[in-house]
Amino acid sequence: MENSRNSLLLYLLAWVLGALALVWASFVAVGFQTGHHEADELTDGHLASVAAVLLSQRGETRFVPEANAGAPAPGLKSHDYQQSLSVLIWDARGQLLTQTRLPELPAFGSEEGFSSLMLGGEPWRAFARWDSQRQRRVMVLLREAERDELAWDIASQVAEPSLWLLPVVALALGLALWRGLRPLHALSREVHELDPREPRTLDPQGRKQELRGVVEAINALSQRSREALRREQELASELAHELRTPLASLSLHAGNLRQNLAPQDREQALLRIEHEALRTDQLLQELLALARASRAEMAEARQALDLAELAARVLGEHAQAALDSGHELALSGSEQFRMEGHPTLLELALRNLVENALSHSPPGSLVELQLDAQARWLQVCDRPGVAPAEVRRVPTLGLGLGHRVIAKVAAVHGARFEARPPPPGFSSCYRISFGPGAAPAAAD
Fold first, then answer.
1. Which sequence spans correspond to the domains of the chain?
2. Above 90 in pLDDT, residue 190?
3. Confidence (pTM)
4. In terms of CATH, what superfamily is 300-444?
């Protein structure tokens, strides 16, 4: 039941039949109105024609009662549109010369033309006319009920074929829509057969124009899925490879502690264990950052953002860490940097830039994040300074994965990540260029 309710075929058929029924109802309404109007015109024309025929006769016109008129000749029958007309003829003085089938006689008058009368408690349609010498006045009458019956009959004849045609058109439209949706069904089957582990894509050639965009979007999504799967596999391989060395070192030095070591050797082993534990923790954080970048690339859409605002927020979050390590943080350059991108990925890249600068520069250094919205780049530079006496420098682990995260984010945005000659007074500088000439950086 749910599949039938969500069927595109039934959805399209319902809309098409609804529009068709609306058009059909409009045609029926116009048909009834037109039939009624044409019946009025036909009746009035009939009355005028009969009056003209009677006035063209010479001499006195006499009508026999309908009961004495006799039966029609064999082979003749009453016509569907045959109407019962009544006739009145007066002379110039208003004396009634003859009349037929009237329940009540109308008053004599001198006016001519069409009129509506009430005779015997029912409405009649009448047409009166004088002859050219104004010696005789003829009035031809017809019950309006008969005229209305004729109008409804004509309108029904106009609307009835459409009523019978509607189910046939609905069936034909259903078959046509079902046949027209076959390319969509075929595309659905091909999409179901796609394997994200295989580099096969859908061929947009030969597709209907409306489906080409869908095919291109599916191919792009499939390509991104394969790339994400490949990166996840590489991530697992990197995780196993990178963790092997610090874990083996941890196991070795932990085993040495079981032996009888001199106090100096024992302290050295504990320092090595602490160092390898820190290295393992940083390695896991950077590998998880790579995985987070892969997931964000798939799940997060590009949006308008201000890179300067994002950079200010990242620096604010690292203020305490910089204070603890004896560093200074600064933001300079453009106050606004409007662009389209992935906020999560760009924030991840900025965090890695700042954290790498803090961990690889000596205490007392100035870490400055510089932006140039016109040239479309941002860079992080560090300048050595005097270290505070109370700050002890943490040894640099130098794993190198932070730059891989930044290069990956730059590649997603079609940017380039590279080391640049530092400005005067600075010792090192790393830049992400978003300019139109920036070539995509390799994720490795």
1. 6-56+83-174, 300-444
2. no
3. 0.44
4. Histidine kinase-like ATPase, C-terminal domain (3.30.565.10)
